[in-house]
Amino acid sequence: MSISKGFSRRAALLAGAFTVSAGLSPAFAQGEIKLGAVLSVTGPASFLGDPEKRTLEMVVEDVNAKGGILGRKVRLIIYDDAGDPNQARTFATRLLEEDKVTAMIGGSTTGTTMAMIPAFEDAQVPFISLAGAVQIIQPVKKWVFKTPHTDTMACEKIFEDMKKRGTTKIGMISGTDGFGKSMRDECVKVAGKYGIEILHEENYGPRDTDMTPQLTNIKNKAGVQAVINPGFGQGPAIVTRNYKQLGINVPLYQSHGVASKQFIGLAGDAAEGVRLPAAALLVADKLPDSDPQKKVVVEYTKNYTTRTGQPVSTFGGHAYDGFMIWKEAVERAKTDNAAKVRDEIEKTKGYVGTGGVVNMSATDHMGLDLSAFKMLEIRNGDWTIVQ
Amino acid sequence: MPELLQFAFSGLTVGAVYALVALGFTLIYNASDVVNFAQGEFVMLGGMATVFLHLAGVPLPMAAALAILITVGVGLALYAFAIDPARGSSAVTIIIITIGASIFLRGVAQVVFDKRFHALPHWFGSDPIRIGGAAILPQSLVVLFGAGLIVALIFLIIDRTLLGRAILATAANRLAARLVGIPVRKIVALSFALSAAIGAVAGILVTPITLTSYDVGTLLALKGFAAAMLGGMGSAVGAVVGGLLLGLAESFGAGLISSKYKDAIAFLIILGVLFVRPQGLFGKRSVERV
Amino acid sequence: MARLLSSRWAIVLGLGLVLAALPFLFPSNYYFRVAAIVNIFALAAVGLNLLMGYAGQVSLGHAGFMGLGAYSVAIGATHFGLHGLAAAGIGAVLSGLVAFLVGRPILRLKGHYLAVATLGFGLLIAMALTNEASWTGGPDGMGVPRLEVFGTRLRGPDTWYYISAGVLLLGVMLALNLIESPTGRAMRAIHDSEIASRVAGIDVASYKLKIFVVSAVYASVAGSLMAFLNGHITPDGTAGFLRSVELVTMVVLGGLGSIIGAIAGAAVLVILPQALTIFHDYEHLMLGLMIMASMILLPRGIVPSLLARLRGGKS
């Protein structure tokens, strides 16, 4: 509703004349497909946003070099929200109102994603989020999709592995940031299903530099058979180092939040024996040739590492999957019309990406199952697949 | 009680970093009444410059020395181009300038370096030393020893040299210092250089333990500022004691009470101290002139 | 000219005209949103400026009150089924009460000590909002039900632009009245010299406390407006330490002790990041440079320094 519709209409006419004459040459812009992205390129979640941005820039460049989508060039408009949900929401409005994008990939964190969802639902433009928490797609929102595995799945994968090894009593140390907190809650929720009891819980702040007090308490808790560390960024690397420093000898499980070779570099020797659930992307070269994901993950890895000079992370992979799912939907819809593209995204079946094989439906706006996760263990400074 | 010893080790290691940041605050504050919120960025620059020079093939000791020089250069530039031109402005104005400087330095770092986390190798290996059932990293001892050395050096300079006298005089009364022929602006510039050097050394010492990235400065500035206030603004002893106390409060708070609220516990202690001693532990009670 | 500018009714009238005229220049809802955010931060900055510019007390924890206002609206509606406006009112009262309780001991501290105490206070609120997830949804935040008045759901940046503009205007009016009142004169005396005003028989502590409470209520209302506008709030986004620093920067950048200055400061700091996106990776670098340059060139803040120049004096 608004009292102001009349006002703003007139204002739009006035200022419209302004923007057209001052704006980009319209003939050129006509043919372009506009794709928006609001990412946390800087700030506490730059760990996620930076590889996502590099990936999107890379794939858009590649697609345009090959003539674009439906013969039209893709124009990618990226804004950096610095991890601030309020800023993210403003940029979302800007993408919708000013840049007139027909789809959006991004929202690096759950906080920024949740802040932007109302804007895209109102504007009826498809929004593919790159954040983890399950609340993004449950309950299902008509215009919102996501590519990363949920944190619930990460917990389930870890608990599956524990169950196989006869582990029933565990300790947990989680970050108080959104990622750590959300995964911690999901783990607590599903632990019972796997007969696992959480004996002791600790927390650490997102920028803490020493977690030995917390780990000392876990170490001294009798009966703990393994420890889980939901968290991302540098926290898990420090937890892993402190774990070794204290000589704790029960297995340590990290989350999919550390899924980058960089983690091994930062944690050093302490990373030996650490287990974590992660997408096939991390072990591209170790996948059997028969694996359907082999081709796509090897290609992405090669492309990303040579173009950016940095190791791949699954976060960049999520952005890649988001872009490809959108691209295929546009190709199937033969238009970038928001409503039609949305319908096609929902119909995505058998898309083989870096995160797994995606089968979406009207009730599942992510389309991944537990098989998308591989259980990895770090041995000799490298990932190995645990069978 | 091995766990208490473990908490103490943790608190002292973290606290030593806070102490060095607080010392940097204190030096500049004494010479110029400026609270420099870009102090954390000096620590970041020390660590990040060492990492990237080392990656570029410079041997580690050389990289560290160069990183200190670079940071000192940045400290001097900060004074010359941002603080000195604003002399005579109110204290808040200059604080906002330093906040702007900290945003600027972070902005430069994310372009010149990158946005990822980085580590440096431990100086004496990463195998912990076990004492009384607790484990401490050799690097923690390096940090503590380094911090002690810096503090001793600062005291030596201030107590035993003419330069130190000049700094003290400038701190006490700027106008009077100028009248007796002390080059006040040079003294203030020097305090920026010294603070930058301390920050850089801190960054180099702790990066093997704490890791570093372009944006570690903000939190360090916050904690260092709190530590300096706890100790009493302007007191070097206070800065060191405040830093160590803050570190210990966090680690014992996390270990004994609640790891969720450990920062809250630390701040409650600071608030408690300030209610009893509004000028901090070692601060002088200020007298307001009418 | 100067007389006209300093007259409080001229200020209110001028601001009202600008706020009413701006929408004619807005080509899209995006502009309404940015302007609404300017209004909201301006409201908080006007309140903080009363504390900093007139009573001379620093607060590095004011975002904590914004957080209280924002979460009152969200929690009140979600957990207690309260009407949004009632919840915002309760938030304002609650913030005032909290300010009253912590203000008495905290305001005894001076200068940087007060800064660190308020900083700690702000952190405590942010931490509670982050950790008490069963109430607040934790670090990822919680949704805020849309405000409904007389059966109409208030949504859309344009609607909230007009509402926030109205509240800002009201806030400015009250602030100007306060400044011209005996309380305001006492505050300025305290700012100039606490001892002297104490000698002159002014109850310094109680005046400081009064202003602290008032500024907390301003921040709380701003927080509630932010929650309504966004429909989703997070602890760091509303109550974080960086938010507090941002508020202080707005006040000083715009001009301590200038109501219009606080609004200008808020406008600059909200609009600048939007304009600086053209620099891509150099955004933050440019933001830092511009803050520094502005404070060096206009040391008393944008509005007072420019006014002084207009009057032909030195800045």
Structural class of chain C: mainly alpha
The first-to-last residue Cα distance of chain C is 18 Å
CATH architecture of chain B: Orthogonal Bundle
Cα shape of chain C: globular
Give an overview of the whole structure:
The complex is a heterotrimer of chains A (387), B (290) and C (315). Chain A contains 13 helices and 14 strands. Chain A has two domains: 30-149 and 303-370, Rossmann fold (3-Layer(aba) Sandwich); 151-285 and 372-385, Response regulator (Rossmann fold, 3-Layer(aba) Sandwich). Chain A has 387 residues and is of the alpha/beta class. Mean pLDDT of chain A is 90; it is low at 1-29. In chain A, helix 9 links the parallel strand 8 (226-229) and strand 9. Chain A has a five-stranded parallel beta sheet, with helices on both faces. In chain A, strands 7-6-8-9 form a four-stranded parallel beta sheet, with helices on both faces. The longest helix of chain A is centred in the first third of the chain and has 20 residues, at 46-65. The termini of chain B are far apart. Chain B has a single domain, classed as ABC transporter involved in vitamin B12 uptake, BtuC. In chain B, helix 1 (2-32) runs antiparallel to helix 10 (236-257), helix 3 packs across helix 8 and helix 9 runs parallel beside helix 11. Chain B contains eleven helices and two strands. Chain B has 290 residues and is mainly alpha-helical. With 315 residues, chain C is an all-alpha fold. Chain C has a domain at 29-241. Chain C contains 16 helices and four strands. Chain C has helices at residues 2-6, 8-21, 29-54, 63-80, 84-106, 111-131, 133-136, 157-180, 182-192, 194-199, 204-230, 235-239, 241-254, 259-275, 283-297, 302-310, and strands at residues 142-143, 148-149, 152-153, 232-233. In chain C, helix 4 runs antiparallel to helix 5 and helix 8 (157-180) crosses helix 9 (182-192). Chain C is globular and about 55 Å long. Chain C starts with a helix and ends in a 5-residue tail after the last helix. The model of chain C is unreliable at 1-5 (pLDDT under 50). Chains in contact: A-B, A-C, B-C. At the B-C interface, helix 4, helix 9 and helix 11 of B face helix 6, helix 10, helix 13 and helix 15 of C.
